[in-house]
Every structure is written in structure tokens, then in C-alpha cells.
Amino acid sequence: MTVQGIILSDLDGDRTWRLADYVKRGGYEALKKIIAEKIPADQIIGEVKKSALRGRGGAGFPTGLKWSFMPRAFPGAKYLACNSDEGEPGTFKDRDILRYNPHTVIEGMIIAGYAMGCERGYNYIHGEIFEVYERFEEALQEARDAGLLGQGILGSDFSFELYAHHGYGAYICGEETALLESIEGKKGQPRFKPPFPASFGLYGKPTTINNTETFASIPFIIREGGDAFLALGKPNNGGTKLFSVSGHVNKPGNYEIPLGTPFSTLLEMAGGMRAGRKLKAVIPGGSSAPVLPGSVMMDCTMDYDSISKAGSMLGSGAVIVMDETTCMVKALERLSYFYFEESCGQCTPCREGTGWLYRVVHRIENGLGRPDDLDLLNSVTANIMGRTICALGDAASMPVQSFVKHFGDEFAFHIEHKKCLVPKDVQHEGSKIYVA
Amino acid sequence: MGALRIAQEEKGWLANETIEFVAKYLGMPAIAVYEVASFYNMYDLAPVGAKKIAVCTNLPCALSGGVHAAEYIKKKLGIDFNETTADGRFTLKEGECMGACGDAPVLLVNNHQMCSWMTEEKIDQLLADLKK
User: Fold this and answer.
1) Residue A4: predicted pLDDT
2) What is the pLDDT of residue A10?
3) How far apart are CA A245 and CA A182, in angstroms?
4) In three state form, how does the secondary structure of A265-330 look?
């Protein structure tokens, strides 16, 4: 794995997930420093603010600011939750973090617990990665045995307990309030906001939820300082970030690069386009992010601001690369099916709307499209967006809007000629089983 | 959720009576447990074969052969998605994103064992191993 960063860099061998290996890499030094020097909570949050670390789960919200929303003098329990329910198509970074460097997440969570006065945390792990869940449980036990986790950490009066929670296959649980419902043992349907989790979260108590990669960045920030983290990236986009590159590239995988790195460099790291074919389109931030034409992407740098200026979002950093053999209608049909399948059914616009989106794209793909279908798609998305409790409705709509906007000709061709613009055998050849 | 997972591992799938048993054990109304069992994809509310294979065919996987892998297994086992072989050994499911898109094609066996980079040869090998 070619990485130059702080989470998956310098990992060598098959024991990198063990406590001893992590300590050798400077692990738990940040926590030890905090405990030994009794660093005040405010100072830790200040350091995180200075680092310009932004939430790595998709929304890109400044982490330090989020932490400062937690009420200080709250009597009773406060909770911390880690969102490792990585189910956004294209995203597979948290799995590697938990597989190869779980202790950095554990340390990050302990520090967060210290800074926000939480004594209990949960890591919600995606259902399909059961083996990773088992490994994380083992890592937790190592930390407990070493006195790094549990009652009176490192002989201080600070206690923090951390539990792993295993999901069971529901995309919606990546939404933070659905995740809390799920930890509580219920079906994962998002809650109304406000109240926000910082005031009414898990079991009704103040709760902060961060992504796995966000927590994994914390030890470095405390050890080396917020400025050092900021300097790795670019202003307002601190640090390095993991990008999960999938699709038509020669070497799919996770690449950890400084925010602000040109997309062309990332594409090169991922081995370039398969069989020298031409880049057609890129979804830069997970399936929910608007698709961008390849030519637009080639002018972007990989950071929150640049991608947002180009009309999409950096999201979770899942870069789905599609070459000229891709039928954009077929690609959208598959994504729309996913949102239709995963809508939790709570809000009518999303429950019914995702069904409409899928059925209409499906009929276009299958030669049954009608002349006014593109207007219909735009009308359905306009009626979903902003009218649902959580962001799944928007997430289902943005791909549809952007595919139609940038590749409208291809949709029109389907409707008029009742077949794909890209011949089926070319599509078939382009997406056959590929192993690097 | 953990209780249902353990019950499913033991019984193979979650029948209504299993759900009621879990509910009684946890001191919860049966409907509350049923809601959870029916909400999450990985719980099976109908009998499945001894080995349940889920293939991810979502877009990132599809671009690297997810659909081809699924077609190959269908042909090999002679079943479609959501069907079980006559000998009760295999059930095939279409999975949603498993968070391992870089390893496509990806299969998940009985919810817990993830298999990466599944070429036709590796699928042959896996099916042979699972028959043992």
C-alpha cells in the first residue's frame, strides 16, 4: 500500500494492529502526555480546532467545533460514539483503519472522552465486516489489560470504557441519530433534529459522534500539535486524508494523501486508468456525491473546498472512477436501486421518491423511457430534497440530478433509440472481473 | 441485536418462534424484536441454505466484475438471487455495499466470512471448500 500520511503510513508486517506494535510507532504517547501533564480539556479542544480537522465521515464539519458543543457542567452520563458503519458505496477506508491500526482509533476516542468528559463510548462497526469487529474487540482487550482503558486510566482519576457494537446490515445506520437508535437496540430510523445529539443523544444524554478516521487523526494532533496537522494539508482543510479509489483503475485501494493533492496525482497513484482507456466520469465523495465529468475532475485538487467549487462534495473520500466503457444510465440505475433498497421508510418523500427514481431510471435503461422522463426525474428529486428527516433523501437525489445534468445526452439517446450509447459488449468487457 | 445474531447463528434463520423466544429472554415485547429483525438486512426471516452467499453488485463492485461474479455463481449453482439449491446447501443473495469496494468482486459467506478479489477460479475453490 502506497501511503504517505499519519494513519496508515509506516505500517509494515501483519502485526501492525497489535498494541505493542502501535506503541513502538509512538502510540498512546499523546494519551500519556495528557494524563502526566494534566492538560486541561479546553486546551485539547483548542488544539483540535487549530488543526482544522474536518469530519471524515462525509459532512466535513469542523471537529473541534463539534466537540465544543458538548455541555460542560452536565450532571450525569455523557457518551461518545464512533461511526464505523461504513456502507456508502465506494467507501472502504474505515475497514482498513480498524484492520491495520485499531489502537489509533481507541486512543483517539479515549482522548475525546477526556476532552468532553465522557466516561463511555461505543464504536458502531458495519455489519458486513464481522472479522474486523472481532479484531477490534481483541484490540480493546489489549488496551484494557495495559491499563489504558477502563477505570482510573494510567493511575489517574479519569475513567473511560469503550465497547464495540456490531451492526447488521443497514446503510441508514451511518446516519448519526439512526446509529444511536441502533446502539439502543432499536431499528435504525433517524431522529428529528433538533434536539442535536450534543444535547439529546444516546439514551437521551449528550453525545458526540465522529467518524473512525476523525478519531484516528486525534493522537497525531495531540502528539505533534494542531499546527503540524494543519501544515500537512492546506488552510481550512487540515491534514492528510484517506481516499478509497475504486472502479476502472489499475490499482484500486486506499491512498492517504495531503488534502489539496491534485486529482491527477491520486489517479496516478492508483495505477492510472485500466487498459489505457479514457476517463469518463468520477464520483469524488461516495455514491451520494454528485458525479463530475472526468475533464472537470482533472482540474480539481482533493480537498473539501476545491471539490465543492466544482459542484460536488469530498464526502467520505470515496473516489469511484468510471471509464469510457461505462453506461451512465446503467450506473445510475444501480445507485438508485441502492437508495430505494436502503430508504428506511420513515419519511414519505424518500420512501416513495426513491422508488420512483429507481423505476424511472430502470425503464430508461431498459428501452421503455418516455420523452418527459428527464423532467419527471428532476421533479421527483426536487420534491425529495430538503423534505426528509435525514440526508438519505438528498443523497438519493444528488446522483440523479448530476447524472442527468452532465450526461443528459446519454439519457436522451436511451429514450430515443431504446438502447445504450455504449454498446453492451463494450460495457461488458470494461467491467469484467478485474484483479490487480 | 446481538441476541438475534446469536439466535440466527444457532438456528440458521429467525422463525417467529425464535424471535418470540429472544423477546421473552430479553423481557421485551415480541413486536419490538420483530421490528429489529425485519429492519436489518443480515437477519434472515425465511429459511436459507447451509451457506448463504451474498455478492455485492453495487456500482463500485460492478465496475470491477461484481455482476460477472454473481452471474458465474448463478450459472454454477443453477439458482437465481434469493433462491436455494435443491440440496439445501447454498442460498444466493444480492448484497449491498459491504465496505470493501477496493477488493471487488466481494462475497460474504454466512454474514461473517468476507472473500475478496473473487475470480472464477477462486469462486470454484470457495464453493468446493464450502461443500466439504
Assistant:
1) 58
2) 76
3) 29
4) HHHHHCCCEHHHCCEEEEEECECCCCCEEHHHHCCCEECHHHHHHCCCCCCCCEEEEEECCCCHHH
For A371-431, the DSSP string reads TTHHHHHHHHHHHHTT-SSSTHHHHHHHHHHHHHHHHHHHHHHHHHHSS-SS-HHHHHHHT
Q: How many angstroms separate the CA of residue A88 from the nearest CA in chain B? A: 7
Segment A15-42 mean pLDDT: 96
Looking at chain A, the whole-number percentage of residues with pLDDT higher than 90 is 94
B98 and chain A in contact, CB less than 8 A: yes
pLDDT score of A3: 42
Report yes or no: B60 at the A interface, CB cutoff 8 Å: yes
Assembly ipTM: 0.95
Report chain B residues whose CB lies below 8 A from the CB of A185.
1, 36
- Return the C-alpha cell found at A373: 422522463
Name chain B contacts of A321, Cβ cutoff 8 Å. Answer: 63
Closest C-alpha to B69, from A24, A431, A135: A431
Spatial separation of the C-alpha atoms in residues A8 and A229, rounded to whole Å = 15
The edge-to-edge listing of strands for the beta sheet with B83-84 is B83-84, B90-95, B51-56, B107-109, B113-115
Chain B positions touching A126 (Cβ under 8 A) are 98-99
Per-residue pLDDT reduced to its tens digit, B78-110: 999 999 999 999 999 999 889 999 999 999 999
Give Cβ neighbours of residue A386 (< 8 Å, ≥ 6 apart).
A394
| Residue position matching grid coordinates 477462486 | B122
pLDDT of residue A2: 40
| Sheet (strand A292-293) strand order | A253-258, A240-247, A318-323, A279-283, A292-293
Reply yes or no on whether the pLDDT at B30 is more than 80.
yes
Say yes or no for a CB contact (<8 Å) between B64 and A168: no
Lowest mean pLDDT among A16-20, A262-266, A353-357, A431-435: A431-435
Q: How many A/B residue pairs have CB atoms within 8 Å?
A: 160
Global pTM reads 0.95
Q: Which residues, 6 or more positions from A62, have their beta carbon under 8 angstroms from its beta carbon?
A: A49, A52, A53, A54, A55
Do A248 and B41 lie within an 8 Å CB cutoff?
no
CA A250, CA A234: separation in Å to the nearest integer?
28
Structure confidence at residue A436 (pLDDT): 75
Q: Looking at chain A, which residue has its C-alpha nearest residue B62?
A: A431
H or E element that contains B55? strand B51-56
Confidence class of residue A160 from pLDDT cuts 50, 70 and 90? very high
Cα gap A400→A109, rounded to integer Å:
37
Q: What is the mean pLDDT of residues A180-186?
A: 96
A58: distance to nearest CA of chain B, Å? Answer: 15
- A68–chain B nearest CA distance, Å: 31
Per-residue pLDDT averaged across A134-162, rounded? 97
